[in-house]
Amino acid sequence: QVQLVESGGASVQPGGSLRLSCSSSEPLDTYNAMAWFRQAAGKEREVVASIYRRVLNTYYSDSVKGRFTISQDNAERTLYLQMNSLKPEDSAIYYCAAGRIALDWRKGSSYNYWGRGTQVTVS
Predict the structure, then answer these.
(1) Is 108 helix (H, G, I), strand (E, B) or coil?
(2) Where residue 55 falls among pLDDT bands split at 50, 70, 90?
(3) Which long-range contacts (CB under 8 A, 24 or more apart) does 68-72 make?
(4) DSSP secondary-structure letter at 88?
(5) Which of 11-25, 43-57, 87-101 has the lowest mean pLDDT?
(6) Burial of 104 (0-12, 13-18, 19+ CB in 10 A)
(7) DSSP tag of 2
(8) Buried (b) or exposed (e) across 2-39, using 16+ Cβ within 10 A?
(9) Is the model's pLDDT at 32 over the cut of 90?
């Protein structure tokens, strides 16, 4: 059974940086795409960034473009999210997701597997 486990969430001050990690129980080439989503208290889940393995294309939401970087380490079976210049509005639970097909990187329904999340607080 596929397992995704996030780590790296913490409390930081505005302007600070964090790197989130998502460890996969399966080789990353099991998936066509992986992504980070987030959900703030009282708000809907939103996509943050996605990476498509075969073409190495990356996509970012407008709210994080230029500040966040998604990457992966196939040997370590780990997905990363480097977050710089953090803002209070980045506070949320961050979830890792993986999809065998993932037709639309922006939609949660594109992803088959989800982690349990890691909390990021910026204040």
Answers:
(1) helix
(2) confident
(3) 70/35, 70/36, 72/28, 72/34
(4) G
(5) 43-57
(6) middle
(7) -
(8) eebebebbeebeeeeebebbbebeeebebbbbbbbbbe
(9) yes
DSSP one-letter string for 15-70: T--EEEEEEESS-GGG-SEEEEEEE-TTS--EEEEEEETTTTEEEE-TTTTTTEEE
Total residues found in the chain within this entry: 123
Q: And the tokens for 19?
A: 């790197």
* H helix or E strand, kind and range, residue 107: none
Q: Is the dihedral of CA 90, 42, 105, 120 positive or negative?
A: positive
Q: Is the pLDDT of residue 54 over 80?
A: no
Q: What's the rounded mean pLDDT across residues 68-75?
A: 94
CA distances from 23 to 10, 14, 49, 121, 123 (A): 17, 27, 16, 21, 27
What does the block give as tokens for 4?
């995704």
Mean pLDDT of the chain: 95
Which tokens is 90 given?
A: 């980045």
Residue 99 confidence class, pLDDT cut points 50, 70, 90: very high
